[in-house]
Structure formats: structure tokens, C-alpha cells
Amino acid sequence: MTALHRLQAELGAIVSVDPGDLAAARIDKSGWQAFGMPLALVAATSALQVQTTLRIASEFGVPVVTRGAGTGLAGGACGTDGSIVLSLAGMNRILEIRPQDELAVVEPGVINQDLNDALAPHGLWFAPDPASKAISTIGGNIATNAGGLLCAKYGVTREAVLALTVVLADGSLLEMGHRSVKGVTGYDLTALFTGSEGTLGVIVGATVRTPARPTGAVSTIGAVFADVASAAAASASITAARLRPAVMELLDPSALRAIAGYLGPDNMAGLPLGHGAFLLLQTDGPLARVEAEAALRILREAGGDAELSTDRESGEQLLAIRRAMHPALAAQGEVLIEDVSVPRSRMAEMFEEIARISERTGVTIPTVAHAGDGNLHPNFVIPFDPDKAADAPLVPEHIWAAADELFRAALALGGTLTGEHGVGVLKQRWLIDELGETSFGLQRQLKAVFDPQGILNPGVMFAAAK
Amino acid sequence: MTALHRLQAELGAIVSVDPGDLAAARIDKSGWQAFGMPLALVAATSALQVQTTLRIASEFGVPVVTRGAGTGLAGGACGTDGSIVLSLAGMNRILEIRPQDELAVVEPGVINQDLNDALAPHGLWFAPDPASKAISTIGGNIATNAGGLLCAKYGVTREAVLALTVVLADGSLLEMGHRSVKGVTGYDLTALFTGSEGTLGVIVGATVRTPARPTGAVSTIGAVFADVASAAAASASITAARLRPAVMELLDPSALRAIAGYLGPDNMAGLPLGHGAFLLLQTDGPLARVEAEAALRILREAGGDAELSTDRESGEQLLAIRRAMHPALAAQGEVLIEDVSVPRSRMAEMFEEIARISERTGVTIPTVAHAGDGNLHPNFVIPFDPDKAADAPLVPEHIWAAADELFRAALALGGTLTGEHGVGVLKQRWLIDELGETSFGLQRQLKAVFDPQGILNPGVMFAAAK
């Protein structure tokens, strides 16, 4: 009996071998497409089905690629040749909301925004806010330790996870973490699994923190600077003044040009956006207005052409500029969204490096940064080519060469390859450069403790065969 | 050549075999005293010396107990028979403070308060605030993932650690984490080492977050309730109103009686403290006064006899009541400070369980809780006994029996054995009850990845031989 037969015999209709289903399971939002074809797609709706799947996979030594909504940007959940793709999108129940304890218990397939909608009547929220929050799952957020726009003020996903229920490679169930706010019994496996990209186990349940949602109206500031260096310096001054806006985004001139072209001049909130760099701030909570006024003074002193908006509508118009970044680039071609992070004080230098790499390679690299935390998203746009061969790589070698320079520059500035997207398949070849050989070797051994056969998402994070 | 000769030959004067030094290295602030006598005390002042020590320890298979200021409360850093005690108290340099990046780089022996004093002129702080902060080291705070009074608002130590430099059992150096705010490259080893109690490696350097220190005057509220149940209900109402005081401490009647006896009635801030339970709140930041007034209304509605103080002096008087808890108990005997944590909503039930256990066993258990996060410290007082045999155990069996009931009650309420002190030696026998066999086994395997010979703090967290 083959693994497929066993899956079908034990799990029935939730096992699909439909070519359309399998093809769709090979891609994520990075545009990456895994080679070959998965063996099957298992659409689990219970932890028991996940356990059965893993037990069979272990028995037959078949790789398992766990998948939520497929919104990843690093190729970390793309069904590889001969693998079982285990979709948890159907495990989407909110099991418990406990306002007294400011926590919720969810299945992994719950959409981030759906949890937030359910929490809103209680005055609570789940703070992690990846740009994909309307479509990405909590399980995926946890598996990648997702960031977002609000992290400098509200933390990353790791800080929001109290406990996990996980299915291990052999199908056994493992509970980790605690429902209490504090707990230090044993090693912090919950943190170890957060960001482990499907390589240690399959998250089938999560207890997450749901603290008080900030109240009151937000204030929003849009500021135009002559160049990216002065915008970066201004954002550093905001941090130095110990202000902590909820959002602080920096768009470089090439990003701005793309957006202006896409939205049209009438939708640029009246800002002189044909040139220069754009800094977008949003303050929230009871002191939103006071903080925004303090920020406004600093931005103007730093040479910014800055406007404060306290009404919802014009604030939304400013945010719409930032949100148009990806659609504007996607209209021009395939987009490889990079994700380096550097210490805040090195952000201006990183922008300089990007400009230098762009000039040297002739590749334009429109960049947006979460300026509050030094996380930059340099974008590589690969123009659509109707004559492109079907088996041509998504990202041409000269783009990878530019990306390679960019990663090395980030590391040299004391930064990291990936601030929030994860290593996935796309950055695996640089992993050892950041970790060093000792850490790389130890991390592979840690994986082997949980997954001795190496069936969980092989090829993700670490190279498949070593 | 013996291990001791090699240590002396390679490290010279930093190796002590003075019986006084060795005896002092056997105890911590829990009162626990390890059996037998350590082989040597190595007072390292550099990472290189730590590497040398570990290399020799590995070669000879000698256990290493790493120690900071010895302020632990779980017997986790007590020099065991024949071990090398590796003191990092002398590695106490603050290497770097980077206000732009809101981070500091420190050696592990830096005292928590000393770092905070150095950060104050920059308007920054290191938020973890164990009660021992005036005397405990950052390395020890990290090794135990220390909590404190402010955690519900400002997080535990794990949230404050960006990167670590660690010496592994074989003497090799390992860097983990990042200087950037975000970073998701590989597994989160930094979180794994935080709270690992010296069992995975020796922390020789830490890069910690130093965010903006809250500004302005604090407001303090003292409130007396008829009983602990109504005080716990009132604290739940504060949380339910989405207020987040920096401090919210709850003292039960038996704790209050001990403190009143110790301080005398004139030092009880004019509060009717012969009976009932005491709730102490402190709000901070720019909205301190507004939040305190909202809290005051809630506490009074909940039946509390509550007073708000906004001047520093009377606020200090209220805090002094809380601070007198340990000295008041220590005046009566040896104190075993327990440390269970439960979901906030179960705190009142946990107090009931403690009362029940106290009644059944005839042992009084004065208890204070960090009520904002559900972390309770039930205290067992063992009266001084001049006739006690020198080799009698610190904690008599009937006290352990009561503690055993207490731990099981906490676990049954969805809580944990230890909220912030760690497992150490004292709670090791309950570890498997909380973790379960699967997790227990996996955690031992994780340790083996970093410490294959099992020389790092054997007997701490896990039982020594298994």
C-alpha cells in the first residue's frame, strides 16, 4: 500500500489529488513555485486528522509541507515534488475568548482579521499586524513570527503567543507554554516553535494574548523630505525624542514615483510627491494628538514638508499612499519583496547601500522601511515578459546577484537577512552567512530532535540535503 | 593532572579553593545549600576565561555551576559537590549604550540597577524589575527569565533580550539573536537560552532592549478589602476596565498581619490593616493621574477602603508596606518563597486553595500576588530552631507536602509551577507533572544537543541522573 492509498483509506474525502488543487498548493505570494508536483493535498479540519497525516507520512518517509492561507513571501509553504501538502485553512474556529485573562484560543487557520473582528466588541485585539492580516492565518503568523507595521510599539508575533499545541513528525501531540501571563517552567519551546516555519512540528492550536486595543482617534502625519537620508534622519529624531508612533513608514523616491504613477497625482493627498522621500506617521491611544503635535514639530525642524491630519478620512488618504506600494509595483511586473532589518541607527546607511547597489547593477530597487524598527523592504521588479519560457526561474540571476549584495550589506551593518518574512526557500542559501557554522550546525541538530527523519518541510530554512 | 591542577595552571589566581569561598558558593537566597563541597570557584572576568574553564571541564567531565550574584530563589546556582563554580560577578562592564537604537550591550555580571542608573541620563531603562534588582545581575535575570512587579505592563526579561553571546559546554563561542528590533533568521535560540538556568551554556554577553523610561510622577493607591476574595475581584475589575497599572500587588490577611507586626501600626500609612486584604496600585507615564482616578472609583465601587496618593512620600509609604513583606517573614524564620502563576481569572480560586491547604495542614501561608498577571508568592515560614541538626533539611517534609498540594492546585487551575523564579533544584521533582512526558523527554534531548556530556548545571531543572 502506498502513502497515498493509506491517506485516502484513513482520511477519505479530505485528501485531494486534483491537479488544480495540487498546482495551487505549489505557490505562495512571493511568486515562488515549487518544482514538480505534490503527492496529495490534505485539507485537515481537526488535530486528529493532522495526527493521522503525520503518522502516515512518518511511516512512509514522505515530506509534509504545512500550509495556511499561502500568503508567505519566502516560499516556505509551497508543496514540493512528492510531498503531502497539509492545509490547515479549514481549522478556522475561534475556540475561546477570555476577556478576563486577555487571551484567546484559536485553531491555526483563523484569519488574523477575523480574530480581531471577534475581539473588537471586548475592547481587545491581537496586535500582530502583517500587511497580509486580512488574508493570512494566525498559524502562519506564528510559524513565521510575523511582523508588520505596528511592531516597534506593539511587538512581534512571538510576544503575542502564550501556548501552542503542536503535532510532531511522528503524529504525537505536544502541549507547550501556559495560559498564565508568566511561566518559566522548562525551556521556552513556544518561542522556539514561533518562527520555525513548519520545520519542527505542525501548530494545531494557539493560545494568544489579546490585550486592550488602543482607544480613541488616531493622528496621522505625512511628511515629504528632499531625499531619503533626511527622511531617515528625521525618523531617528522621532525615536530619539522617545516618541513611539504606532506606524512610522519611510518610502524612498523610487517607491514614491511608482505609487504616484499608479494612483495618479489627485490621490497623493495634495503632497508634492513627484520627487523626494515620504515619511508617514500614525500615533494612537489617548495621547495620539499630543504625540503627533510633538512629532510634527520635529519633522518640520528636520526639513520636512509635513502635515498633520486628525480626521479619519484624510488620515486614510495618507495611509492609502503606503498601501498602494505593492499594487503599484505589481502592476509593473513580478515583485521580489526583500526584507532586511538593521539597527535603527544604520537605516540611512542601508538606504545608501541600496542606492549604490541599484546604481552599480542598473536594477531599480524601490524600498519602503518600517522606520520605527529598521526593517526595510527593498523590492525587485521583474518586468512581465510574454516570451518568458515556462520553466524559466522566477527571479533572474542578475536580480539574485543584486539581492546577494543587499543581504551582505545588511549583515555588515549588524543587521539580518529577514526581519519578518522568514528564510523559507528563497533565503536558505544565505542562512549560514548570518548564523555562522556553529549555530547552523546546532540548529540542524535541534530540528533533528523534533523531526529525526527530516520529513517536515525539507528544503525550507536549511538546504534539503546536506 | 587533575581538573583542578589544569584550572590553576591555565587560569592562575582567579581559581579559588578557599573553604570560605567554596562554602559561600553553595547557597543562594532561597536558603538552599548544596550538598558536599565544590572543587573550585573560578571568578572569571573575561569570555576567554569562561571558554578555558568550559574546555577543561569538558575534558575532565567535571560539572560546571554558573553563578551571578547568587540571588536566585530556586537553588539553581548552588555549587554542588565536586563541581566548578563559575562566577561571572566580575564580568560587570557595560560595554555599550546606544540611545539611537535603544539597546545596551553588557557583560552578564552587571547589576540590574547599575545598568538602569547608567541608562537614566538617556531617558531609557531596562524594564525587567525582579524584586532583587538592586543586587541581581542581568545574566542571572536572563538565565531565569526573571519577572518582577512591572511585568503585566512592561513584559518579562525575555522580551528585553535581543542577542546573546554564549560559551557552550565544549568551550566554543556562540552568537545568537540580532541588534535589529526585528529578526527571524533561523530558530529563536535567544529565547531558548533565556530561562535555561545555566543548563545549555554560559551567557557571557547580552544585547538588551532599553526603551524609553516612563516619564512624569507616579500615582499610588492603597486599598483595604474585607477579604482576599473581594480584593482579587477588585483587581480583576481593574483589568476588565482595560486599565494597566504598572504595579498591582495583593497582600492577603496573613501577610498583612505579619507586616503590621513588623513595621508597627504607625508605619501602615494610616490604613486599617489589622485585618482584611490589601491591594496596592501604582500607575505611571503621562496618564498616571487619570488612570489612578479611574482605578480609585473602581476600587471603591468594589468595596475597597481606598486612598490615592500623588505625592512621592506617601506613595513610598504605601510601597514600603509591600516591600516589608519579606523582611517581616524573614524575622520569623527561614522563608520558602513559592511562585505559582495562574490565569488572572483564577487568582481568587488560587487564594481559596491556599487558605484550604493552610487550614488542612496547619501551616500558615502568607501570600502576596502580582495581581496584574496572576503570579502568586505563597510563603512558607519555618520557625528558627536552635536545636535543629546541622544536616537537617532546609524545608521539613510537612512543608514540602503542603507545597506539593499548592503546586498541584495551581496546575489544576491551568497555571504553572513557577512564574518567575525558575525550576532550579527546588521544583525539579514537579517538572514532569507540568510538562508531561513527551515534552520532558524532548527538553532533555534539547539539552543534550548543547551539552552532550551533561556537565552544565546537572541536577538543575531536570533530575541529575535519569
Short description:
The structure is a homodimer of 466-residue chains. With 466 residues, chain A is α+β, with helices and mostly antiparallel strands.
The helix fraction of chain A, in percent, is 25-40%
Radius of gyration from the alpha-carbon trace of chain A, in angstroms? 22 Å
* Proper CATH architecture of the largest domain in chain A: 2-Layer Sandwich
Total discrete domains of chain A: 4
Strand runs of chain A, count: 16
Reading off the top of the CATH hierarchy, the class of the largest domain in chain A is best stated as Alpha Beta
| Low-pLDDT segments, ≥5 res of chain A | none
Shape of chain A: globular
What is the number of helices of chain A? 15
Assembly type: homodimer
Structural class of chain A: alpha+beta
**Mean model confidence by pLDDT of chain A:** 95
Structure, explained:
Chains A, B: It holds the Pfam family FAD_binding_4. Chains A, B: Residues 34-213 form the FAD-binding PCMH-type domain. Chains A, B: Keywords: FAD, Flavoprotein, Oxidoreductase. Chains A, B: Its cofactor is FAD. The structure is a homodimer of 466-residue chains. Helices cover 34% and strands 18% of the residues of chain A. Chain A is α+β, with helices and mostly antiparallel strands and 466 residues long. Chain A has 4 domains: 3-87, Uridine Diphospho-n-acetylenolpyruvylglucosamine Reductase, domain 2 (2-Layer Sandwich); 94-209, 2-Layer Sandwich (Uridine Diphospho-n-acetylenolpyruvylglucosamine Reductase, domain 3); 219-326, Alpha-Beta Plaits, CATH 3.30.70; 333-381 and 393-421, Alpha-Beta Plaits (2-Layer Sandwich), CATH 3.30.70.2740. In chain A, strands 13-10-12-11-15-16-14 form a 7-stranded antiparallel beta sheet, with helices on both faces. A 5-stranded antiparallel beta sheet of chain A has the order 5-6-9-7-8. Chain A has a 4-stranded mixed beta sheet with strand order 1-2-4-3. In chain A, helix 1 (3-11) packs antiparallel against helix 3 (47-60), helix 8 runs antiparallel to helix 13 (347-361) and helix 13 packs antiparallel against helix 14 (397-412). The radius of gyration of chain A is 22 Å and the shape is globular. Chain A starts with a helix and ends in a 16-residue tail after the last helix. The mean pLDDT of chain A is 95.
